[in-house]
From TrEMBL, chains A, B:
Residues 122-246 form the DUF2520 domain. Residues 4-87 form the Pyrroline-5-carboxylate reductase catalytic N-terminal domain. InterPro entries: 6-PGluconate_DH-like_C_sf, DUF2520, NAD(P)-bd_dom_sf, P5C_Rdtase_cat_N, TM1727-like_C_sf. Gene3D superfamilies: NAD(P)-binding Rossmann-like Domain, ProC-like, C-terminal domain. This is Predicted oxidoreductase, contains short-chain dehydrogenase (SDR) and DUF2520 domains. It holds the Pfam family F420_oxidored. PANTHER family: CONSERVED HYPOTHETICAL ALANINE AND LEUCINE RICH PROTEIN.
Amino acid sequence: MISVVILGAGNVATHFFKGFEKAKDISVIQWYNRSLAAIKPYANAVEITDDISALKAADVYILAVSDDVIAEVSHQIPFDDKLVVHTSGSVSVYDLDKKHKRGVLYPLQSLSKNSDVDFANVPICIETIDKKSYPVLKHLARSLGSPTKRINSDQRRVLHLAAVFVNNFTNQLYRIGHEITEHEGAEFDLLKPLILETAKKVQEMSPYKAQTGPAKRNDKKTIKKHLKLLENEQHKAIYKLLTESIIQTHGRKKL
Amino acid sequence: MISVVILGAGNVATHFFKGFEKAKDISVIQWYNRSLAAIKPYANAVEITDDISALKAADVYILAVSDDVIAEVSHQIPFDDKLVVHTSGSVSVYDLDKKHKRGVLYPLQSLSKNSDVDFANVPICIETIDKKSYPVLKHLARSLGSPTKRINSDQRRVLHLAAVFVNNFTNQLYRIGHEITEHEGAEFDLLKPLILETAKKVQEMSPYKAQTGPAKRNDKKTIKKHLKLLENEQHKAIYKLLTESIIQTHGRKKL
């Protein structure tokens, strides 16, 4: 049995709590948040507190708090030499107070607070400084049902960066698709099957192989038509830059 | 029973042929391509020809040929006043020879030649010049199992443009995610569940509501870290431009 204290009340904290509740050999013995209101709904299921000096002794402390307060909160944990991990993609493991054994449990997924999570679709990237902490964190992640991967800090940083490209930036391209269709009275809904198919395709095939379209074909006529059609200067700049990027990736050798 | 002649041998021609073969009340009576080799595998199922002057009389001629030759091939069809449609997102319906009744059947999906297509996920956008042709084309599309939508030329043009954003450009963002992870020895595979989740999210929720991440939060610290991490100047420019675009979409009012 691994005993866990969760700190924070955001999406990751909430889904980790719910996931551990279902796991057989994990016990969440306490849930801390600086404001009790957010975790009060769980008061019947777990001891809650807003007093960090009242934290109980546990095997693992999971800091699912904002990046900015990870260092400070880890410092306030009133124990030494405990295994303390954060869940951030971009904060160094060394930002955690060095009085602890330190690690990271980084769930590589977009977790919405109000929808259920299937942890089978949430790879958890694990980083530890000492070797002995690794199997403990792997056990925690596996008990949620997540696939796990041991990574180092550099790899975590680029995964977080790549996640911005494939999630936030991709979503902004959907948003632009929404803007330009609705502007003309066409339905964004018509694009939804294509959006899903594009994401499904790269589950099996590399994005390189999956590419199609006017930029890949270097179809200057269609590219010109599209640029003429775009009224928003920023959309035009995005069209140009991503077209150039595709041409560079797939470009034929220059004559 | 609607009789159809298919012209061309690409992905759209092939999937339309296979789809119509399964439909009850559609009969593909002939398949034309300028080279017989590509359609020879279907010679037992349909009459094939490479001689456009030998085309049979049919209710509908579907030109699933390259954009560049639509006008010319439509001119060569040795009949007048037949219903002739092309399948392109970006070519005007008026590019078809005016001796015909003219229309468009534009499948809004990425069709790969070697994988099966479920037409339930392929919305077909229909455009006609005369009113009487519309129900015929709708019947054709429905018999494939596709959802249909009547649109005009302007709407088709922006849908094709938006498809480039949500399909080709999105796929290029996946490609960049692939490049930057593999460069650091991290696995692109770890990003695949996130890619799928991002696409699934906007099936139910607007891309505006679905947005998360450092750009939306205007988290300058993380944005700075990311820009420092990117070595490729083009990736850096894409990061900057899409971050600006998200900030503009979600920006708080200026003080």
